[in-house]
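[job 0412] stage=fold_complex status=start
inputs:
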Amino acid sequence: EAQVTQNPRYLITVTGKKLTVTCSQNMNHEYMSWYRQDPGLGLRQIYYSMNVEVTDKGDVPEGYKVSRKEKRNFPLILESPSPNQTSLYFCASRPLARKYNEQFFGPGTRLTVL
Amino acid sequence: AQSVAQPEDQVNVAEGNPLTVKCTYSVSGNPYLFWYVQYPNRGLQFLLKYITGDNLVKGSYGFEAEFNKSQTSFHLKKPSALVSDSALYFCAVTPDQKVTFGTGTKLQVIP
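[job 0412] stage=fold_complex status=done
writing structure:
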């Protein structure tokens, strides 16, 4: 089954404790992206990647890192999480060839930073 | 810079009535416009998109959207609402590799 998976689905952590949220897709998509969803703000793009070793900032990259060492994986790293990073996070992917291709979304990761 | 506005936080409609969820956008260049739906505790699902051509775009689950270049709008419509259409709807624009979403509109279909 074609899908985007994220782990963990739920995470409660404390300020300053480094964490990684994994994202993996099995559709051979070049483009992958991370979003955060906050009430009243909708989805905001954090980082995106157009292929292995190619990443770029979205609208809200501060406090986040990403890496793209393999085509299928695009982990989101919070090196020193803070309470304002409490949010619902989504990973998505699509073929790169046409930027009007729709994205496939993962199920989301709900992160709470205390 | 690109932007998307969804002016209504919530839309209530009676089952069987037509529904409209509004979206306006601002972008330089050609706008590629999308509608996604999010059911509770789920990720977003693609509904439909506008690339070029016909201003009326048909998508999944009986939804359609009308692209209006002069009004920079891309409103989502359905002729007859179902209770199962109750969800959160997002409009998005992507003229390049960045994607900008609206703030979302909660659609409540009342039986």
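[job 0412] summary: Chain B touches chain A through 25 residues (CB under 8 Å).
[job 0412] exit 0
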